[in-house]
Design brief:
The protein is mainly alpha-helical. It is 54% helix and 9% strand.
Length: 208
Amino acid sequence: MSLMDDWLAYVGDPSQFDSFHFEALLLELDTEAKVEKAFAPLPGGAELAKRLNAFRSAAEFNGTYLLPGQRKRGEPEQLTARYRDGVSDRLRDMGRGEEARLVDAAPIGSLPAEAFDAERGAGNLRLLEVLKEIENDFFDEMDTQPGWIDGLYEALYAATNFPVITRYLIQPVMKYPLDESAYAEIWLGGDRVEFCETMTCVVAGGAG
């Protein structure tokens, strides 16, 4: 049996396989038609397939992972402001008003990835744990979903190893209340966003 066959069986009965069995699923789903077939049984699966296929077409592929594309997609600082506002709103909904206040207060800036790492290493930039808190909240929500959501998460996470991108891709199926589309555009342009005490930083070249 193929991994596609295993996946379709798993959707019907998640007890048949461990979720990590599907880490390589997207490598087998190497055409848009296969992606559409694999996700058709899921509620919201058609939209998930459409989103994944569009994301793949905008990214590069090294044979194992999806990587950022070759051009910027919009203004990173404007996209970051949009994402920051969504993160702040979500933190407030989670009862994390103090963290939301810190996110709101920090100005948006940009550093090359090497400079960002150096500043962190020197103790000049201290990360806020807000993305980790959102990730934990997301996992709590995953616990309320059908059992196949775990295998789907592992398959999508293995494509980039970026939790925010995984949440963006899975959103048509699991309606987590945070719009991650601005971060996806930032990532496809080669950058990432880090929330620090003194700035919300666009880490230029930090997505790959």
